[in-house]
Amino acid sequence: MSTINAKSACFVGAILIAALLSACNGQRSQTSSEQSDKGGDMNVPATQGVVIEIATFKLKQGVTADEFRPLDKAVELQHVVKQPGFISRESAAGDNGEWLVVVHWRSIEDAEASMASFSSAPATAQFMSKIDANTMSMKRYINIGEIPMQIPPLTRSVGSAERSMRALLEQKLQSANLSFAEWTVLALTSAAPLSSVEVVQRQISGHVVTDASGAQESISSLILAGLITKSQGDVLMHSEKGTTVFAHLSGEVEGITRTLYGDLSIADLEATHRTLMEIAKRANILLVRQN
Hints:
This protein is of the alpha+beta class. The protein has two domains: 3-25 and 152-290, Arc Repressor Mutant, subunit A (Orthogonal Bundle), CATH 1.10.10; 46-142, Alpha-Beta Plaits, CATH 3.30.70. It is 52% helix and 16% strand. It has ten helices and seven strands. Strands 2-3-1-4 form a four-stranded antiparallel sheet. Strands 5-7-6 form a three-stranded antiparallel sheet. Helix 1 packs across helix 10 (266-290). It is elongated, with a radius of gyration of 25 Å.
């Protein structure tokens, strides 16, 4: 396999692994820490500790905790967790309609930026309509001890990387009127001819398509477009046109990979590769068990 094709295959492989992982539900890692009550005094530099934001308020008369709970969760998932510097959030119901929200932020700036965007966020309208704004109180505290180590929300990070990388690739594929599934067929058959059965199996095992019909459709489309040929022995290989198209797109992909991680250290790349491959292996084991 040529250098260009090898890098193209790596790019495709990274997307396939990331696509698998991003389908899983990420869980936030929450830690408990000793709080240092500064009474709202923000003179302590935010770099010295995690910001702990505590908000209390009462629900409007007639609004029950069971009614408000899904609105609170919607605000968390649709707005708060997406804000820069977010670490964790928890909420709890008290007596007489009281409600408590505790959020951990990386810095004061992150906490203030989230608050500034809160009122205009689509998810907060119903939330705010159910609370008594006159009872709302919010204070911030800083843990001046060591910042607790947080395990990154891996599936969220991988999902974000996958979507961004996929979007970059899709832009290139659109110029050649190719779908992602069709591109993977070209990538799979770039090193050596493969039977259609092998291509279908690899597309399904790589989670490019969900069933054989989807894989066969991508093969048929490429044959119709004159990009691959199918011999009497059911062997698929690039046509002259297909070789030209694939070489051009591979060059485009190589440029993308150079920009994305060409300057990263070998150690970082190797560690990332090992981690993704191990997680993909475990995920595939779970898929087999569930099926």
